[in-house]
């Protein structure tokens, strides 16, 4: 008997870092240089044949970068089970914003274990949801600030990410690997 799992995954990070582009590359295998800012939130669905008995329906929530200044994230984050936190390797300010996004996430998106509804854990003492860090636009490495970035291993561990990847939506570098890493962590804790 096949079972289906619906996983709500958030894609967050500052304006223009490439969240929509990463999702379009992953779900539709397309890329455009044209920038059109996301308003509010967009959605995409990817079906994965996870193993011989499990189909994963990955629901990607593409949250607009400008939402960090809004007050809707609490609503958007509800019942999410994982997150991709994206920055732009060519813009240091977007890397500095990563911790703000992560803190926002950890304070609002808490993993609910089965049975939590009638325990105190549901009141906010639960575990943070798995999150993977993506340094996007790595195709522009030679022109960017990347060489100035500290090695991200320590950063990733210290701030509770389950992994990190240099990605390019343009060249299709590490997009699949980063998302697989996240889905594996989600499936491991669920
Ligand atoms: P908001 O919706 O405003 O939060 O932005 P976003 O994070 O969704 O960024 P979006 O995907 O719209 O990309 C912003 C710009 O960066 C676009 O012009 C993209 O073409 C470009 N871009 C995205 N990913 C890459 C990449 O990997 N490499 C390069 N060179 N450009 C990229
Ligand atoms: Mg967008």
Automatic annotation (TrEMBL):
Molecular function in Gene Ontology: GTP binding; GTPase activity
Localization: Endomembrane system; Membrane
Gene Ontology CC entries for this record: late endosome; lysosome; membrane; phagocytic vesicle; trans-Golgi network
Keywords: GTP-binding, Lipoprotein, Membrane, Nucleotide-binding, Prenylation
Domain of life: Eukaryota
Entry annotated with the keyword Membrane: yes
Membrane-protein topology: Lipid-anchor
GO biological process: one example: phagosome-lysosome fusion
Family: Belongs to the small GTPase superfamily. Rab family.
Function recorded in the entry: The small GTPases Rab are key regulators in vesicle trafficking.
Name the UniProt record assigns to this protein: Ras-related protein Rab
Source organism per UniProt: Oncorhynchus tshawytscha (Chinook salmon)
Portion held of the full protein: 1 to 190 of 242
